[in-house]
Amino acid sequence: MAQSRSFHDVARKVRRKLGQFLGQRQIGDVWPSGVVSFSFDDFPKTAFTMGGAILERHGARGTYYTASKLKGTASDLGPLFETEDLRAAHRNGHEIACHTHSHLRCSQADKNTLVSEVRANAAGISAIIEGFVPANFAYPFGAASPTARHVLKRHYASCRGIQPGINMKIPDTAELYAYSVYAGTFDELRMRELIDRNKAVGGWLIFYTHDVTPEPSPYGCTPEQWDAVVAHAAKTSPILTVRDVMAALNA
Ligand SMILES: [Zn+2]
């Protein structure tokens, strides 16, 4: 484990150097006061009806990591998205992005399986929003592996994990750091401190949750909690979708 961590630290450094060589812009140069993104995994309906509405009230938009095979199903997150939710989120300016098609755990999948999941999800999403090509990805369960990083990096502008951290300078787009907003561990002061620290260091802070509802699952939060984090971020730094951050970084 220690060995694989240090390998990734080296890999991150190499990518950063390569990024500088390729003329990618650094986060702190584009946003001296940092930038914040809000994302939802699995796209439960309430992520749009509640979570998306809160973002919109603050003039912001979110990123929805969608597994198209889960359309119209339900889970412990409540009912998941249906065709019209996906279209409405897209129409309102939110970003539709990708999980794997079937919510497959990438860490145990081989290359062919990963590629067929990528293709199936692209087809599933473009069948709902005609001609739309999703650009960014999040690992289901946050489960990455060297193979998954290598394969998925070729298909997406960025891949988001669940390792906590602030993305700095030229970020490691094979596995972006992110923080959960979960009801059971929610600490408003800590969230504010994270947003303030991100501003101080000129970083890119990404939050994620699942359902947003008064009685959330262990993987979701309440509308009040979500609103508190979004409100503090809106006062502190620009809020952009992952797509818009990646575009501005020229990555
Ligand atoms: Zn998921």
Structure description:
This protein has 251 residues and is α/β, with parallel strands linked by helices. 43% of the residues lie in helices and 13% in strands. It has helices at 2-21, 27-30, 45-57, 83-91, 111-128, 146-153, 188-201, 223-236, 242-249; strands spanning 35-41, 63-66, 74-75, 78-79, 95-98, 136-138, 158-160, 179-180, 204-209. Strand 1, helix 3 (45-57) and strand 2 (63-66) form a beta-alpha-beta unit. It is globular. The structure holds zinc ion (ZN). The site of zinc ion has 5 residues, from loops.
Count of individual beta strands: 9
Structural class: alpha/beta
Please work out how many helical segments DSSP would assign. Answer: 9
Percent of residues in helices comes to 40-55%
The set of bound ligands, ions and cofactors reads: zinc ion
Q: What is the N-to-C succession of helices and strands? A: HHEHEEEHEHEHEEHEHH
Rg (CA only): 17 Å
Shape: globular
Lateral arrangement of strands in the main beta sheet? 5-2-1-9-8
Largest beta-sheet details: 5 strands, parallel
Low-confidence stretches: none
Distance between the termini: 29 Å
Percent in strands: 5-15%
On the 0-100 scale, what is the average pLDDT? 94
